[in-house]
Design a protein that fits this description.
With 266 residues, this protein is of the alpha/beta class. Helix content is 40%, strand content 10%. It has eleven helices and six strands. A hairpin with a 2-residue loop joins strand 5 and strand 6. The relative contact order is 0.12.
Length: 266
């Protein structure tokens, strides 16, 4: 039944619109049917590459991980790695997202933060960890004198995600998508060459150190290519489970001590 606009208060209307934004609603449906085949998109999504008509080739599954590995290996710097991701046409997430979310902060920072995948705010702004989760992340690292906006590499942060495109509806990335993006993630770490890595959430831990169960592995130093790695909770998880912030604070203190060279690898 259609809603009479005159019967809704401004407060209720604003709340209703906010709910639609949170659900990623980008179209409204009217009372009359619309022939959408005759409509043009305001901003077309990236075009999917044409499928091969070679039946013999189609009978063998394409090695998308191998293609990703070759592209990632060719990148000699972070700009080239970003261009390689832009050219990669085999991840379906690219065609449902608004844009690539590559990184933020200082690339020469001692500390690299790796999260899971962009959300709605990240997809809009093209930057990782913005919105409520991003503000919490900034506050967490500001407490140990680190910032993505620092003028010093020693106190800077370099931030990225395992998955560079937003999954539809903020769903969790599939294992196929993680495996496809893993070569780019490994190349990203090698090119950024951080002294320490913080993995935020299960997806990041699964992709980089092949471990999951964040409540079990958080707070324990791991190693990746000789780089100390600290698994900890994702800020979005902490927003839902505020009692876990005290554990995340312990992890941050361990990171601060490690950066000061006051502890070993344990």
């Amino acid at each position: 039944m259609p809603i009479d606009p005159d019967s809704i208060s401004r407060k209720d209307a604003k709340a209703f619109l906010q709910m639609q934004l949170e659900f990623s609603v980008d179209q409204s449906i009217g009372d009359d049917p619309v022939n959408r085949y005759k409509l043009k998109e305001d901003k077309p999504r990236p075009a999917r590459p044409p499928k091969s008509i070679n039946l013999r080739a189609e009978s063998k599954p394409a090695d998308f991980v191998g293609i990703a590995s070759r592209l990632a290996a060719q990148a000699r710097n972070l700009d080239e790695l970003r261009n390689s991701l832009e050219k990669f046409e085999h991840c379906e997430l690219k065609f449902s997202a608004r844009q690539l979310v590559f990184s933020d902060g200082r690339a020469d920072s001692r500390l690299m933060i790796i999260g899971e995948a962009p959300g709605r705010d990240e997809d809009i702004q093209g930057r990782p960890f913005v919105g409520r989760a991003g503000r919490l992340l900034d506050a967490m690292f500001a407490a140990i004198d680190l910032s993505r906006n620092s003028e010093s590499a020693a106190n800077g942060l370099y931030i990225t995600n395992v998955i560079p495109w937003r999954p539809p509806g903020n769903r969790a990335p599939t294992s196929e998508e993680i495996n496809m993006m893993r070569p780019f993630m490994f190349a990203h770490i090698k090119l950024a060459s951080p002294q320490l890595i913080v993995l935020m959430g299960n997806i990041a831990c699964q992709a980089v150190i092949n471990s999951a169960g964040i409540t079990r592995i958080r707070g324990d130093w791991r190693d990746f290519l000789g780089i100390p790695v600290m698994p900890t909770f994702h800020p979005a998880y902490l927003l839902r489970n505020p009692l876990s912030k005290r554990l995340a604070w312990r992890d941050l203190l361990a990171v601060r001590l490690k950066m000061r060279g006051e502890v070993g690898s344990s």
